[in-house]
Amino acid sequence: MANALILRTNLNEGIPGPEHFEMxxxxxxxxxxxxxxxxxxxxxxxxxxxxxRSDGDFKANTPMxxxxxxxxxxxxxxxxxxxxxxxxxxxxxxxxxxPAAKLAMFRRLTGLVNEDNISLGIGAxxxxxxxxxxxxxxxxxxKRGEVLWVSGAAGAVGSMVGMIAKHVFGCTVIGSAxxxxxxKLVMExxxxxxxxxxxxxxxxRDLIIALSKVAPSGIDMYFENVGGMHFEAAMKCLRPxxxxxxxxxxxxxxxxxxxxxxxxxxxxxxxxxxxEGFHCFPWLFGQRGNFLQxxxxxxxxxKVKVEETVxxxxxxxxxxxxxxxxxxxxxxxxxxxxxxxxxx
Amino acid sequence: MANALILRTNLNEGIPGPEHFEMxxxxxxxxxxxxxxxxxxxxxxxxxxxxxRSDGDFKANTPMxxxxxxxxxxxxxxxxxxxxxxxxxxxxxxxxxxPAAKLAMFRRLTGLVNEDNISLGIGAxxxxxxxxxxxxxxxxxxKRGEVLWVSGAAGAVGSMVGMIAKHVFGCTVIGSAxxxxxxKLVMExxxxxxxxxxxxxxxxRDLIIALSKVAPSGIDMYFENVGGMHFEAAMKCLRPxxxxxxxxxxxxxxxxxxxxxxxxxxxxxxxxxxxEGFHCFPWLFGQRGNFLQxxxxxxxxxKVKVEETVxxxxxxxxxxxxxxxxxxxxxxxxxxxxxxxxxx
Lengths: 344, 344
Fold this sequence. Notes:
Two copies of one chain form a homodimer. By secondary structure, chain A is of the alpha/beta class. Helices cover 24% and strands 27% of the residues of chain A. Chain A has two domains: 2-123 and 306-336, Quinone Oxidoreductase, Chain A, domain 1 (Alpha-Beta Complex); 127-282, Rossmann fold. In chain A, helix 9 (317-325) links the parallel strand 16 (308-312) and strand 17 (332-336). Strand 14 (261-263) of chain A pairs antiparallel with strand 14 of chain B. Chains A, B: Keywords: Oxidoreductase.
C-alpha cells in the first residue's frame, strides 16, 4: 500500500494543526514511463500556509504537496537508477510513480548527502538553504563589516542567513527570535553577535529601541521573515544604501486579510535604499549563483550548522505545520516518513 | 556689482513664493586661485523644497544654492579658460569667484551646448536629465515591450523618462499629469501612448481604475515623482518582476510632516518586485552609465525633446519655485539670469 497525507479542508484563518489533515491508503502504484520513488522526508514550511487557503492552489481532499527528499526504487529513464537520492516537489505520498515528464525539476542529491542525512535535501541544500543563499548573496549583497539584521533567526532560513553573513561574509549579525531559549541558540550555536527577544517588545517603538541598542549606527541590511513591526523597525534603522530582502511575512499568514505596513518612501531617495522581494527558485534550480556547491562547502566546513526539529511519521505533519506558527521549532522542520531508515 | 538671490526665511509648511526671497547687491568679487564666473541660468527644482526647511541645509539670510550653468570670465587654473561653459552647484550670485578647491564638481559643457542653449546644462544634460537617465536605465532597467508608468509626466524629469522609455527602449509609456493641457502636451509633443489626468481622480481607487483602463494587464515599471495615491495605485497594478524607482514625492514637500504610504510587502515576494530609491549623482558625475554621451545623442536625434518654462531675471526665482508646486510649469523650470545674452 501507499500512504498519503490529505488536506481535509481549506483554511482561511487561524493556525493549522492535525485536525486539518488525515492519512489515506491507496494501492501501491506501479512504475510508469518515469520513476517509482519512496519519500524519506517531507517539509513543513511557512509558505504552505497561503496555499491551503480557499484561494490557494492546494485543494481539499487531495494530498498535500511540497518539498521532499527520497530515493528511486525503480526507473524507466536513463538518467536515474534505483538507489539514487533526489529532492523534488511532490505530493506527500510515501511511495509513488512519477511520470517522465515531471522529472525536469528533480534535483540529484549527491556529495555530502546520504540516506542518513537526506533531510539536508529539504534543508540546507534545498528550499530554505537556497532561500537564505539567494536572498543574502544576490538580493542583499553583503560587504565585509556591514550590519545585518535578520528576523526569524532561530528558524530554518533566518539561521542560515545569519550564519552565512557572519562566518562567510564577515558581517556583524543581529537576529531576532521569540524567547530567551531561541536567543541563546542563535548566539551560542549559530554565532550571531546579538539577538533581540522580540516577545518582550510590545510595540514598534520598543523594537526600535532594542535594535538601536545593539546597532547604534543603524543597519545596512534587513532580511525579512516576519513582517509587521519588524519591517517598520528595520526601515526606521536602515542606513544609507540600505537593502531589505523580503522573504516571508509569517506574522500575517494566519490572518484572513493581509495587514498593510506603513512606509515613508521619501526616506529612500537620498539614501538610495532598496526593498526587494524574492523567492528561491532561481538559485535552487541553478539559474543564478552557485548555490549547491557553495552551500555544501559551507556545511562541510561547519560555517553553516544544520539545525532541525524532527517529527516522526507522515501523520505528524499537522503537528509539525502547527509548530511553525507557535514558535515550536528551531531550524528546519523535518517530517520523517515512517518506514525509512533515515535516522538523523 | 554682483547680485545675489537670498533666502529670507526657512519655511516648514506651505508653498514657497517670491515673498520668501529677496535680492541683495555685493561688490563685484575678484578672481582668486580658481575662477571668476558668470551665471547664465539657475534651476528651480522640487528637491530644494526640503532644503529650505529649518532642518534643511539652506540657511536664511544667505544666497540660495542650486544647479546652475554659466561661463568662465577669468581663470587661474590650467583646466579652464575664459569663455568655457560649465554646469555646477553654486550659490545664486550672478558673478562670483570660485576657489580652485571647489572645481572638482564642475562639469564642462561642450558638444551640443553653446551660450544660446546653455540651459541644457541644467536640464537634459544636467540634474533632471541624469535623474531620468539613471532612474530609467539602471534602476528600472526597461525591456522592449514592457509597460512603464511615470507620474509628473509633463515635468522636467517625468517627460524625459517617458520619452527615453518610448523612443529609445521601445516601451509602452503611460504618463500622469494634472489637467487636459498637460496631458495633451505629454501625448502630442512627447509621444506617450497614454496620459492620465490625475486631477479627475478623487481617490486611489479612481486612479487604479484609470490606470487599469490603459494598462489592463498591469504595469512593469513605475517611476515615482509624486507619492501619495500614485504610489499605492502603482503597487496595486504592478506585475510580477515589477520595479518602482523612487525619485521624488512632490505631493509631500509642502507638508510639515511626511505622510506614510500603505504597503503590502507580502505581495512582493512571489512576484519578485523591487522598490528602489535613487538620486542622480552617480550618473551626473559619470560613476555609472554613459549619461552625457547617450543623452546628447538622444537630444540631437530628437528622441528627447527639450521642454522648458523660462522665468526672466534672478529675482523671478520665487515665482519660478512656486510654479513647481502649483502646476505652473511644463518641462524644466529655467531662471534666466539678467544681463546674459542667453536667448532660448
